[in-house]
Amino acid sequence: MVLISVHVTLTCAPENLTEFLDLIKQLGEKAAAEPHCLSLEVFTSQDTPGEVTLVETYNKDRKYLEEEQLAKPYFAEYFPKMGPLLVKEKQVGYYDVVPAFRWANQA
């Protein structure tokens, strides 16, 4: 099975973080409900105020993510709302999950 992890780092002005996270939550709930999304987590930086990183894991390949997942209608709804809040260009990294090195404990 293909497992790919997408790491997206977005930076907004610190004073807009609450509004930005609200948009991320709405978008994330829709993305996480997709059948190929295995997990979606959101992190805020301790070192850079306003920096948010999304870590998503899918059981589809990069082509699917770029051509089909990002074409979902809800992305077209939220990207225009989020874009004006960004103060830096987004950073996106695609990573292959190494199954032998996956551990998770329930906190």
UniProtKB/TrEMBL annotation:
Pfam families: ABM. Residues 4-95 form the ABM domain. It comes from the Eukaryota. PROSITE patterns: ABM (PS51725). InterPro entries: ABM_dom (IPR007138), Dimeric_a/b-barrel (IPR011008). This is ABM domain-containing protein. It comes from Rhizodiscina lignyota. The lineage of its organism: Eukaryota, Fungi, Dikarya, Ascomycota, Pezizomycotina.
